[in-house]
Amino acid sequence: MSREHLKRFRTPYPDYNVLAKWDTPSFDDVTRRVIAHRLEHVPKRRFLDEAQYALLRAVMDTVLPQPERSEADRIPLEALLDEKLAMNLTDGTRHKDVLTQREAWPRGLAAIDAEAHAMHGRGFLSLSADERHSVLEAIDTGRVDGEHWKGLVPKSFFRHVLLKQAVKIYYSHPAAWNEIGFGGPAAPRGYLRLGPDMRDPWEAEEKRRPQEAEDLSEDET
Amino acid sequence: MQAMAGGLAVAAGVGLLAAGGKPPSRASKLAAGGAALLAASVVADSAMEHYRGNYKKPAMHVAPIAAAITLATAVATLVSARGARVKTAIFGGAVTTGLFGLGFHVKNILERPGGLSFNNLFYRAPFGAPGALLLAGLAGIGAVDAQAADTCGTVRLRHGSGRLLGALTAFGLFGLTAEIGLLHFRGAFHNKLMYLPVSALPLNAVSIAYAVARPGCRHERQAAGWLAGTMGLAVAGTGLHAYGVSRNMGGFSNWTQNLFQGPPVAAPPSLAGIAMIGLAALDLVTPGSEPE
Amino acid sequence: MSAIASDAEFTLRATKGRAPNVFRRGEWVPMREYDENEPVDFAIVGTGCGGSVLAARLAEAGFSVVAFDAGAFYRPLEDFASDEAEQEKLYWLDERISGGNDPLEFGSNNSGKCVGGTTVHFQMVALRFRPEWFKSRTALGYGHDWPVDWREMWRYYAIAENDMKIAGPVRYPWGPKRGRYPYREHELSASALVLARGAEAMGVKWTTTPTASLSAPRGEAHPCVNRGFCKIGCATNAKQSMLVTYVPRALAAGAEIRDLAMVGRIETGPDGRATGVHYHRDGKWRFQKAKNVVASGYSIETPRLLLNSASEKHPDGLANSSGLVGKALMAHTNNAVWGIMNEEIRWYKGPPSLAVCEHWNYVDEGKDFDGGYSFMSQGPLPTDFATTLVENEGPFGADLRNWMAHYNHMAGLKIVGETMPNDDNRVELSDEKDRLGLPIPKVTFSLSDNDKRLAAHAEDFMSRMLEAAGGSNLFHTASTAHLMGGCRMGDDPATSVVDASGRSWDIDNLFVCDGSLFPTAGGVNPSMTIVANSLRIADRIIAMGKRGELSQSAAADGKRGA
Ligand SMILES: Cc1cc2nc3c(=O)[nH]c(=O)nc-3n(C[C@H](O)[C@H](O)[C@H](O)COP(=O)(O)OP(=O)(O)OC[C@H]3O[C@@H](n4cnc5c(N)ncnc54)[C@H](O)[C@@H]3O)c2cc1C
Ligand code: SF4
């Protein structure tokens, strides 16, 4: 993976706003209630302590950087994750000999910080964006020290816990639907035009091609 | 959109051209009325369907425009007997457009994965719409022809014209049976009433063919009865299709989806169009129906 | 997941003589109720493909039936949001411990928790087994034979398909002739056309997938509007889940459904026979007396319940003299290949798997593995796809957002791959307890070498196909879906838990009826086979009743409980 991450993200759908459909038949009452709650209610920190919370935010900003969004428009990944942990929401699976989400997150965050110290001599929070990226990359490729991970497999924690939870929250947000051109809520009105390159007037219009994707499989080591 | 506006302007021109002539005969009026109804249904259907198709190909503008011009010409034929030659030429254009449309639609189907599969027949470009334009054009030509026959007044000419229109009616009814059969099959005949048109229309076709084949054989009344039934189907069908639309999720308040989702409300009126052509044919072959 | 959407998860809805009318907002249908102290003919645990079908058929035959479900009773039109996160409420999210070399993911992958069961959020692919699979040991040399003949199953498939108004192709290109599907096939979406194009390029057959979603109106249910949220619950009611098919039928025939009712134990008497079920509802444990008990909780919960019902007479759990309860659990491999297409696909539209290729289910030459696989076109919603992407490939940073920006250009092919029944893959009880004090299940699962060869074959074949269809930047992902087995049915008490009627070999008034009966997994999605098999079992039970072979002769004579 080159310095791709330094490239700024550019959406192919600059003019699309899924919320513009709020009062159309694409939204029904129950969906409006659910989305309104998600947009209006930013949960207060309850589970993690202040330092962990700050670290979590920095990690989330590395995993899903949102430089183009103001603080008010930013998707508050750390707050929504902290709420999930506080409510002890689980997904039905606890891997044998693997820590629960509530155990895994504090420990994983501490380990990330420890890796930052080991690699750069400073805590994760005081690293540059590039350095932060390199720390997480080292974790994902298994080039890290097992010592401070205590019961976590670094790569599995990174992909199956950290990235998984991050994208589940991020791509549940209307702002994320906008940037990928997802049609969003669709009841009672669904779609009429199903063929390739076909679009209903109430779907996102692609204004430019998505940026070249890196070839993921070749990237695998 | 601009092309559409242009088309409508041409149509208006046709209307003006025809104004002020002497009123046409009953048979001509009926046939022209039939052509108008068919064309109107094509205008609505092709405008909607090609809109659904995002007007991807420029040729997709042609159908609604040609149908609109045909509609205007048919209305002109309905009110005035003037300009027979221009009208025939315009109706001829509709016939050509219909034939090309059929060709395009066949090509569209064959090019897709699955080729001549049910999925493509169900959901791809239908044969019915260009077919209806073709019928409208032919009926228009028939209307002009009927006017000529009625003006001249000889029995031979009137019968000849009536036979043509009768054959056209039978042909149209069979075509519609196929189209409705396919689409109601797609709907799994989930409502038993959906069997009605596919069983009644072929019988109607046979009865009209019989009546015009042997003019004066007193089968006209029977055929007229069938045609009235087909008219009734047109009205009932429109109502039932509207009910069908309301059964979709969100009903009419979700019209941006449901008018397209179907069943097509604009389709059944074309049955009335065909029935009118049939009535024109009967008028020409029935003894004692000559204009004064 | 919250009271914001509806109160169904917190408030009993099937109670006081009425149950939700699933076709209308806020409305009810009358429901018959039975006395807990008066033994009902059948207490059924679970209302999925096994439980609800049996409840409907037995009630229609005049038996008194109470069916329990741990989950909520929804009205799709008003309770189902167009939102992935919210709809997680449909999954069985109680923790299960997952181990083995290839630990299973539960929840969204395979287990539902609501009245109607997992079909409320299934993907509606409605396929039949290949006939030989019912005798895979004898005919194909692997796995176990089913104690049924394929022709009998063929008849019940047809009934099931008609009951669920499956929309399928006019001619199905594989296997022996089948009658016409009751509803016509859906319009193919762009993502389905990718499979079609690829198949034609590779010279293999493909077809429109038989789909449990209405292509025309049915009663009060609206036809499909292509909203594409099928996998997280259909708010249109086009999806023919158990919730809108057999559950209303069961209620209309006089069955009682108890929602938010978790059955913890099946009670057995001094003679070792079942006497009823202990269940937790409305904050306390209760007991329903029953002449017959049916476990229909699916491949994890059914074994868990039988094991947790151990008694003096049955120290290893109920129906477990063979030691097979919980064993030979199977999943389907769900490996996929994904690629970027030049054109916009917008795979969020329409039922997600509208095209299918069963080539490798029906062709045996050129395979280096036992069993078969089918594969379908795909249409995952954003978080579903993002999760697959990061768990398998791990992109992050701007790169991740960029990858996801190709969402509308993506297409994918995913298999339903048969895995071999293996007694080491099993459900057991752990020492940990859940919030009701019930032992948490522990599941062990490892893929065999054969399973891995099958998946590798599929990945290779599908990659070539996706490339032939114009896909670029291909990548592979691995996962599993569906559950089968855990309480195998068979002809021999030593090698199976229940007989061909679902009746346990050990206890004559204890039945199992759900996906856990599968002796082998087959290379197709399981629900139609579960429904067909349940219909078959229902007929057998009704016939037993007529012959006076049921417990206390709970005959189909219209005599009911309270
Ligand atoms: C995402 C997804 C997509 C799928 N797609 C398809 C597909 O396209 N085609 C296909 O054929 N199959 C599909 N399946 C699989 C299919 O849905 C299941 O195989 C099938 O529904 C299982 O039926 P069942 O009756 O055995 O169990 P279930 O439907 O799971 O029913 C069991 C019910 O029992 C209840 N229960 C369990 N234990 C207890 C207890 N102790 N007390 C009270 N209630 C209890 C549960 O709440 C549940 O409602 C899919 C599954 C998933 C998860
Ligand atoms: S695509 Fe059809 S079946 Fe799926 S959720 Fe929408 S309406 Fe229901």
From TrEMBL, chain C:
The protein in question is named GMC family oxidoreductase
Top-rank lineage group of the source organism: Bacteria
Q: Does the record carry Cell membrane as a key word?
A: no
Q: Which SUPFAM superfamilies match?
A: FAD-linked reductases, C-terminal domain (SSF54373), FAD/NAD(P)-binding domain (SSF51905)
- One MF term from GO for this chain? oxidoreductase activity, acting on CH-OH group of donors
Alphabetized, the UniProt keywords read: FAD, Flavoprotein, Oxidoreductase
Where in the numbering of this chain does the Glucose-methanol-choline oxidoreductase N-terminal domain appear?
184-333
Q: Which family does it belong to?
A: Belongs to the GMC oxidoreductase family.
Q: Ranges for the Glucose-methanol-choline oxidoreductase C-terminal domain?
A: 421-532
Q: Which organism is it from?
A: Pararhizobium mangrovi
Keyword Oxidoreductase assigned to the entry: answer is: yes
Cited PANTHER family = LONG-CHAIN-ALCOHOL OXIDASE
